[in-house]
Design goal:
The chain contains 25 helices and 23 strands. By secondary structure, it is α/β, with parallel strands linked by helices. Strands 9, 10, 11, 14, 15, 16, 17 and 18 form an 8-stranded mixed sheet that branches. It has a 6-stranded parallel sheet with strand order 3-2-6-7-1-8, with helices on both faces. Strands 22-21-20-19-23 form a 5-stranded antiparallel sheet, with no helix packed on it. α8 packs parallel to α10 and α12 runs antiparallel to α24. The termini are far apart. The structure holds adenosine-5'-triphosphate and magnesium ion.
């Protein structure tokens, strides 16, 4: 029975080798980041195939992203001469799709069923609500959508939901109607892919048994992030709980790390690990404790940080890699300075022959990428944004830009078509065709053809054009950022995304467009020598290099004249210049496929990946940890796991940076550095900027009076630097170490640090710090529901709560 040693096992440590060669029974590999879980899972597949224990068709492997699935196939085909195409390796959604196509009759679906993405789903629900005259104030479509998706994630059909009140009954009724509509139209949403394939397996014994016999080995990576339905789906493929009765049954091999569970907000259940061990009677549990990814300064930092979480399953990680470089910490005066420092550091790394693809920039939310992108772009460093589009290519940004273009040029038909029915305003494809026909035969733009379209279509499109005209009129005399605010509000874009289940990120991106405009001064030069001039949050101009630097000379040249007209001196409107800037930054300058490029992504998208050098940016209270999650302990622990994931992506060099000021969502914020800094071992850190002395005067990188004076000019009250005590929050979110020092400034008010206060808009909070005096006095307040904010005391009405 002894299986001959395989060269595949060479180089694995004892535990890894044991995990790879486990007998065909259920197993759980629980191990920390970088311990080789994914490598073990992949090697096990190769080993099972090579030793003839299974054929490619007998493998079902679930990964978390398509990227991970592709990587796994690539690795497998490099280990073994096999055809990986026939193997069932993919994401849950991908595999469910494949399953439903194969069993569409049983699933009662046309084989060509269409998949609704989140946005399509919402449009479908809206249509439905209209048809049945649902009061959308009482039952907002987004809420219905949230309700339906939640039910499906819990495996519930309308008949399974217990409705306790009128409102719940109405929602269930709509859920049922929505199902009928989807069924009639032959479409399925994401949740339905999972649920429908689960039901086919549950209700059809022969099919289920077929797959149970076929898939001898079921392997799941990132098991800690599975939700209830996904777990139930996996159970369908496995033979019933064994109790030693079916040694010929199949084997589920689950791999995970409770410390990296970062999708609770989408229903992920770490509890699935314990359930799995119990329900599957798992006899083989292996822990991997050797980390092969990171140097010990990085690993110790990760271990120390995560030790602040409670309810952990408990694992140790060690490394033989040596201390390596210290973790470098940088404090910038502005987000621009932060990005600029990062770019300079990257250039130095590049000089030391670090490939750009081994440099990654991680951030907590997508909107943060814009400043980084601009800095990289201006430095001529190619970059690629993962798990999301580059800022100016994101759908919501393109929609907003389309409105802006139409303000500049009503005859821009592409932009017209992009937004004529977005947000949806009931203009159908037929009406648009009619309009296009008229425009074609009259040889004019869509805008100019509107008056010739008759009937209901004419009225609806006419209203859209009228709206544009009003916006154009109102925008006269406005600054660029005011125009953009006007457009994103009055186009309906913000309302549209705000109501969407996962639209928060898009709203933030739209607000970020306002930030972009505020820092935008103009464009100089022509073509590839064009330079976008920008200023940082304090109004300081930033040095910028030509866009062409470092780029492939074969890139298309922008022909538009960007300089003032030589005769008349006329220059582009700020809006036109800004749109040009947007065009410059999108499209062709994206790193070519295969080109060595810096990697940009959110921490969520970085799960499972690794890089030599990692920059974690925006390490500030309210950003990371995110303000939405700071008020409760579970939220904070999830943020800490996210930070753990971020740190453990780095092999050799880790950089953490934060900034004193940041322009985000159209506002300048003064953030304190993240509490996570206090949870890292001091011995592993190297502060690149002096830490501020207690209650000190501004110190630190490139700071100094000049910029702040400048700030006074641009922003009114001077952004006095925060006191130097580090945020030092304890678990309840109370600041510690407050009030031990600093004379209270004279402000003529009785608001003081440590005090509970009430604010009309932000509700209850606690004062963290007071800065400045007289008219300049400002308070930093941590609000229970809105996170940390700086408020000018002369304006903000704060009522002390006894
Ligand atoms: P994560 O939790 O981040 O998903 P992981 O546990 O899946 O991490 P892997 O990505 O499989 O870890 O491995 C981390 C790195 O360590 C990879 O570069 C991998 O090739 C390497 N590695 C794993 N095991 C060994 C080993 N025995 N010898 C040398 N390198 C190894
Ligand atoms: Mg992994």
């Amino acid at each position: 029975d002894h299986v001959a040693p395989s060269p595949l096992l060479a180089g694995l440590n004892t535990e890894q080798g044991a995990a790879v060669t486990l007998p065909p029974e259920h197993a759980l590999i629980l191990a920390g980041a970088g311990s080789g879980k994914t490598r073990v899972l992949t090697t096990r597949i190769a080993w099972l195939l090579q030793t003839g224990q299974v054929t490619p068709g007998g493998i079902l492997a679930v990964t978390f992203t398509n990227k991970a699935a592709k990587e796994m196939m690539t690795r497998l085909s490099s280990m073994l001469p096999i055809n990986v195409r026939g193997m069932w390796i993919g994401t849950f959604h991908g595999l469910c799709n494949r399953f439903l196509r194969a069993h569409h009759k049983l699933a009662n679906l046309p084989q060509t069923f269409q998949i609704l993405d989140t946005q399509d789903q919402l449009s479908a629900i809206k249509r439905l609500c209209k048809q049945f005259n649902v009061d959308d104030e009482r039952y907002p479509p987004k809420q219905i959508q949230y309700f339906i998706s939640g039910c499906k994630e819990d495996g519930q059909r309308p008949g399974d939901v217990v409705a306790r009140d009128e409102e719940a009954r109405k929602k269930v009724e709509l859920y049922a109607l929505y199902e009928e509509q989807c069924q009639r139209e032959g479409v399925v949403d994401f949740g339905e892919l999972m649920l429908r394939s689960f039901e086919v397996l549950r209700d059809n014994d022969p099919v289920r048994e077929h797959y149970q016999r076929r898939f001898r080995h079921i392997l799941i990576d990132e098991f800690q992030d599975t939700n209830r339905l996904q777990y139930a789906w996996i159970k369908m493929f496995s033979t019933p709980p064994l109790e030693g009765l079916t040694p010929a049954g199949n084997a589920v091999f689950a791999v995970g790390d409770d410390d990296q569970s970062i999708y609770a907000f989408r229903g992920a259940r770490v509890g699935n690990m314990a359930d799995f061990v119990r329900e599957f009677n798992v006899r083989h549990q292996i822990k991997l404790e050797q980390n092969y990814r990171s140097c010990s300064n990085i690993l110790d930092s990760a271990n120390e940080l995560i030790s602040h979480n409670s309810h952990r399953l408990g694992k140790n990680l060690r490394t033989d890699a040596g201390a390596g470089e210290p973790v470098r910490v940088f404090e910038a005066t502005s987000d621009f300075a932060e990005a600029q420092w990062m770019v300079d550091e990257m250039k130095q790394l590049a000089r030391k022959d670090v490939p750009k693809a081994e440099m990654a920039v991680l951030y907590r939310s997508n909107a943060q990428s814009r400043v980084v992108e601009t800095a990289l772009f201006n430095a001529g460093l190619p970059y690629r944004v993962y798990g999301g589009l580059r800022f100016f290519e994101r759908a919501e940004i393109k929609h907003a830009l389309a409105y802006l273009r139409l303000l500049e040029n009503p005859n821009d038909d592409t932009s017209f078509l992009r937004v004529v029915n977005f947000p949806p305003r009931g203009i159908g494809a037929r009406s648009i065709e009619q309009l296009q026909d008229v425009a074609r035969s009259a040889g004019c733009s869509l805008h100019d053809a509107v008056s010739a379209v008759t009937g209901r279509a004419g009225v609806a499109i006419g209203a859209f054009v009228a709206k544009l005209d009003v916006l154009r009129e109102r925008s006269e005399g406005m600054t660029l950022s005011e125009i953009i605010e006007l457009v994103i509000d009055h186009s309906g874009l913000v309302d549209h995304y705000r109501a969407e289940r996962e639209g928060q990120d898009r709203v933030e991106n739209l607000e970020e467009l306002v930030s972009a405009a505020k820092s935008f001064v103009g464009i100089e030069g022509f073509g590839r020598d064009a330079v976008a001039r920008t200023v940082d949050a304090s109004g300081q101009p930033l040095t910028q290099s030509p866009a062409s630097q470092g780029f492939d000379a074969s890139l298309p040249v922008l022909d538009e004249p960007l300089a003032p007209d030589a005769d008349t001196g006329e220059t582009m409107s700020p809006l036109a210049a800004f749109l040009t800037h947007a065009a410059l930054e999108s499209g062709d300058n994206q790193a070519q496929a295969g080109q060595d490029a810096v990697q940009l992504m959110t921490v969520h998208a970085a799960k499972g990946l690794e890089f030599d050098c990692v920059f974690i940016t925006g390490m500030e209270e309210g950003l990371f940890p995110h303000e939405n999650s700071m008020s409760d302990r579970d939220g904070l622990e999830e943020e800490r796991r996210l930070m753990y994931v971020a740190i453990t992506r780095a092999r050799k060099r880790l950089y953490l940076s934060h900034s004193q000021t940041r322009m985000l969502h159209g506002q300048t914020r003064y953030n304190m550095k993240s509490r996570f800094f206090d949870e890292l071992p001091e011995a592993c850190l190297k502060w690149l900027t002096p830490q501020q002395p207690a209650w000190g005067v501004p110190s630190g990188a490139g700071g100094g009076g000049g910029q702040w004076q400048n700030g006074r000019r641009s922003f009114g009250a001077p952004p006095v630097l925060q006191p130097a005590w580090s945020p030092g929050f304890n678990e309840k979110g109370d600041p510690k170490g407050l009030g031990q020092t600093a004379p209270e400034p004279d402000r003529g008010t009785d608001i003081r640090a440590g005090q509970a206060v009430f604010h009309n808009k932000f509700g209850e909070g606690k004062v963290l710090a007071i800065e400045g005096a007289g008219a300049d006095a400002r308070a930093q307040v941590s609000f229970t529901r809105h996170g940390v904010k700086w408020l000018a005391l002369s304006v903000a009405k704060l009522t002390p709560i006894p």
